[in-house]
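BUG: 3D viewer hangs when loading the predicted structure for this chain

Environment: internal workstation, default settings.
Expected: structure renders.
Actual: progress bar stalls at 90%.

Input used:
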Amino acid sequence: MRQKAMGLQKELEKIVETMEKHGYAVSVTGDQKIRYIKKGEEDMKELTDLINETMKKVQKESAKKMMEMGGGLGGLLGGLK
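Structure tokens produced before the viewer hung:
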């Protein structure tokens, strides 16, 4: 199961969506990590790092809560495999 999860993680990392609007450009991967935020030519790396760090913390807390409430996704999906 762990190998499947690692394989899925690698596949999600390959998905990349980039959007531009109002002079900003944002690029995000399928595993919900921001690759970059730019305003014009200015790379906003500090903001990118801050958002990614915050998202990681929230994901850990969410996973912990799901485990407490019934075993994560397996519990939510009724044990489907």
